[in-house]
Amino acid sequence: MSALIDLFSVAAIGAGLFFFFAGTVGLLRFPDSLTRLHALSKADNLGLGLVVLGLIPRAENPLAALKLLVVWALVLLSGASTAQLIGRALRRGRK
Amino acid sequence: MDEFLLSAAGVIIATVAVGLVRILRGPDDVDRLMAVQLLGTGGIAALLLTAYATRVPGVDDVALGLALLAAFATMAFLNHLDAGQGDASQGGSEP
């Protein structure tokens, strides 16, 4: 059973790594700022989300797992709002 | 399994470090801001992985704190970007 949990953790964290890598490549390769913003928010939310998903079965008590979810929710909310603010700054031409 | 978590944290930090090249190359301030935000999120993911690999108490709280501060740093920079023109000045906020 614990091997299955480890396998799930490895798979989820591996997928999280992939999305971090994809976001970073997108940040470096995309032509203009808005597309980079798109790539960045994918890496933020999905990469961290999958890492958290991989860590949840390893949490000792449900409270620690809840703390993981709280960290991810905070990053989701702050990432979404800052992406909107960056988009607004870009639209106003204030690079 | 713990070695895998630590190596995953290392890979995330390396990926984000490559993403920092955008700061050197980035034509606009907003692109540099995105690289810093990606560094924040990568840092949070690495902190969480290290917390669960080394089982040191309190490291996941550091990740929660970093999640909060990364959001504030981004918003402070964007507010500074709008300080000269736009609603920040009409809003009567102190220079």
TrEMBL record, chain A:
<dbReference type="InterPro" id="IPR005133">
    <property type="entry name" value="PhaG_MnhG_YufB"/>
</dbReference>
<feature type="transmembrane region" description="Helical">
    <location>
        <begin position="64"/>
        <end position="86"/>
    </location>
</feature>
<keyword id="KW-0812">Transmembrane</keyword>
<protein>
    <submittedName>
        <fullName>Na+/H+ antiporter subunit G</fullName>
    </submittedName>
</protein>
<dbReference type="Pfam" id="PF03334">
    <property type="entry name" value="PhaG_MnhG_YufB"/>
</dbReference>
<dbReference type="GO" id="GO:0015385">
    <property type="term" value="F:sodium:proton antiporter activity"/>
</dbReference>
<keyword id="KW-1133">Transmembrane helix</keyword>
<feature type="transmembrane region" description="Helical">
    <location>
        <begin position="7"/>
        <end position="28"/>
    </location>
</feature>
<keyword id="KW-0472">Membrane</keyword>
UniProtKB/TrEMBL annotation, chain B:
<keyword id="KW-0472">Membrane</keyword>
<keyword id="KW-1003">Cell membrane</keyword>
<keyword id="KW-1133">Transmembrane helix</keyword>
<dbReference type="Pfam" id="PF04066">
    <property type="entry name" value="MrpF_PhaF"/>
</dbReference>
<dbReference type="InterPro" id="IPR007208">
    <property type="entry name" value="MrpF/PhaF-like"/>
</dbReference>
<keyword id="KW-0812">Transmembrane</keyword>
<feature type="transmembrane region" description="Helical">
    <location>
        <begin position="36"/>
        <end position="56"/>
    </location>
</feature>
<protein>
    <submittedName>
        <fullName>Multiple resistance and pH regulation protein F</fullName>
    </submittedName>
</protein>
<comment type="similarity">
    <text>Belongs to the CPA3 antiporters (TC 2.A.63) subunit F family.</text>
</comment>
<keyword id="KW-0813">Transport</keyword>
<dbReference type="GO" id="GO:0015385">
    <property type="term" value="F:sodium:proton antiporter activity"/>
</dbReference>
<feature type="transmembrane region" description="Helical">
    <location>
        <begin position="62"/>
        <end position="81"/>
    </location>
</feature>
<feature type="transmembrane region" description="Helical">
    <location>
        <begin position="6"/>
        <end position="24"/>
    </location>
</feature>
<dbReference type="GO" id="GO:0005886">
    <property type="term" value="C:plasma membrane"/>
</dbReference>
